[in-house]
Write a structure and sequence with these properties.
Strand content: 5-15%
Strand order of the largest sheet: 8-11-10-9-12-13
Largest sheet: 6 strands, mixed
Helix content: 40-55%
Radius of gyration: 31 Å
Distance between the termini: 78 Å
Structural class: alpha/beta
Shape: globular
Number of helices: 34
Length: 865
Amino acid sequence: NDEPVPDGTPEELMAYIRRVGGQRPAGNTEEEQIASFRQMNEKIIAAADKILASSAPGDIGKQAVQIKLNAFRGLAEVGTPDIMPRIRTFCQELRQSGNLEYARLGRMILFGMQVGSLAAGESDDVKSVMNELDAMLVDREWIAAEGQGEQVFGLTYQAAIALQTVGKFAEAGAAFQRIGETFQTHPNPEIATEAKNLLERSALVQADFDGKRDAALFDKPEAMEPFMGLVRQLLAGQNPGPYLLQQMLDAGQYMEFTQHPDSAREIYSLVGQAYQGHPNQELAAQAAERTTNGTRRLDLLGKPFVVEGVLPDGTPFDWSAYQGKVVLVDFWASWCQPCIAEIPNIAKNLELYRSKGFDVVGVNLDENPEDRQNFLQRNQLPWATVISANPEAQGFDNPLAVKCGIDAIPFLVLVNQQGVVVAMHTRGEELGQKLAELLGPAVPPAGSPAPAGANPPGATPPGATPPGGTPPGATPPGGTPPGTEAPAPNTSGGLPADESSWFVSLADEPESTETENTTDDPADDEKANPYLAAAGLSPAELIDYLLAMEEKPLTIQRRPGFAEAIAEAADRVLAADASDKFDTIAALAKFRVLHDRASFDDQQADEQLVKFLEQMKDDQRPKIAAEVLFLSLERKALDADELPLDQLPELLNELARFFEGQTLAQRHLRIASATVHAVNRLEQDEVREQEFQRFGKLFAASPDKELARYGKKIAKSSGPGSSELVGQPLELTGTTTDGEAFAWDTYRGKVVLVDFWATWCGPCRKAMPKVKELYEKHRDGPFDIVGISLDQDLDALAQYLDENKIEWTNLSGEDTQELAKKYGVRGIPTMMLVDAEGKIVAVSHNIDDLTGKLEELLAAGKKAP
């Protein structure tokens, strides 16, 4: 309602604030509720201002400051126009208030905004961030104050992370160093420990350890030796600490998983030497155990391998029955999610290669026999399952597991026909590739018998207790398996190890080994997902995982499996009845990763995004509600082609109001391109031009360079209109994505579809399947396509062309912007149909509008003498 904010004592005003804040926003539509929410918060701010103007007592004054800040945050979360300048102004007032507590609070918020702008790419003022970080760290009284030091540590730490994220490794390393030096003697022992880890992290960040490691593993083989030189350098110091140990052990495991055994062996050797005799005996023991296990695993390569143990019914396992075969030995447990996810892939390869001499043996490492039994009853594995013959040496204490140095599962050993280990960690596609090398092309069988001791599909596993029975000595469901170790201490500074879910280690084993995983779960992928969060993590640990994954470079974030892993972890948090804060972080992480993949034409991600929007549409938590509002509006814009023309102005006004209240970033490119596509549907030239001007100015104000350039382009009324182009010759020049000079003359005599587009353009991607369909239908005739890409990110363009198998020529680079300007391209996709003489015969933003004309031209060409 429009009731004015009353006057009164500070206490009366606080009562008013509580009453207003306890109300639910009014209105029947989402738009009405957001308007009501904004009005409520503006009243709360006005009441807080009256309290602050009255020189209220200390406690009430502090509450009023916090209440006003919270109201500002609420307004920001629903996209209130010009809210950020108001927040900055208030925080500047706090800094200059003369009240030390208020001044520090204002300073922290301003610094947080500064860091956020840097991380989002909205600012590149690294110098100011470093200066403010230093100024905060020298205020030792602030840092020593109870509860204050932790806040300063957290904020400065996030600043260092932001610097690292944007590639400022020298500055990030320096920031970690200064934070570590400042807090290493902090009275909070957890902070002090974290600080000491940052001192080691500093050296790794400054050297870009993660980037050089990933380059060596995934992109550039020639980068391996420089990376190993860095490893030697870092381990050469005196008394290395726990953070460096964890990073090096992780690096060794990455080398194992990516089939670099020589590098893995050297890392384990260097780590063992560096920590031998370390003053911290616990650290020395951990290093010795992990490196010994790593060396044992690597020593398996090239050596004969023997599986020893018994079947679940106690029958001795006969390894000799597998002589002359290629055998995959799979160490697994029912509680291990990555193990279960790999089983369908193993079963598929067994079906393909069994007739050629391939078989599988599973070595189960469950502590609790009942868990193993329950799993095998639900999932009839088509291979033998082997366990330890010693009831007192189960799980990771299985003698074969100890002999092989296994401290993480799944662990896979591939043995050739001579009984010699030829590979380890052959998961996903690697297994099929290796089997093809050893056995030749796959031959799907018509059916073949299982080996002796195997559990054929549909059969009861040997030794299995019938349903309802309990084997003697079994631990009841939910009990702690005997010998299970407590989770290992986090030695990585509270940050999850990179890609830690490639495996589940002994320390990750849950207290309860009861599991609901089944091999027929439709969510299981053919290839194991290396990015999945480990099983058994608490909501807090999952949040740490989600935040750490957000720091990964885009090259990793866009790898197969990454989005699925984020969505899966977020779902686990949301299902755990966690706090609002945790739920918000999880929901936003899932929204963002699905939106990113959907923006890159991932149909599965787009479908999941729609379902998640439906799931969260009624959530009242401000940040989630704001995200739902954005994504729902984007969906409306993407579907604008199905909207009646008389409803377009209403949609465009709604979009304009949204854009006016946002700081537009790269993630808004999709909705921006969809908006321009909708504008191009307008029939009246004058109205269309007004909308181009309106949205062009909004987009041009974006700090994102690509969106700003797009906005400036559509705001300019330059170049000919579509009707003026028809009948005119088209001349194309530039450079292809292969780096070659483009030869337009070679297309003379063909009908050509010229497509102005970009990978970030939602309507462009939506049209691409139909463009490909036309290409496949007519490619053998006098027809071709030329793409004119307006992408600035040429890596994203190359990735899209490769993933989508785009075979026609595409132009890229700065020349394409000039072509767009020359031919008056005001929105994309813009498609021009060019006849055999090189003249434009039709222009449209919709491929369907050109299909009929294309067919006419091709038919006329066939009839010509």
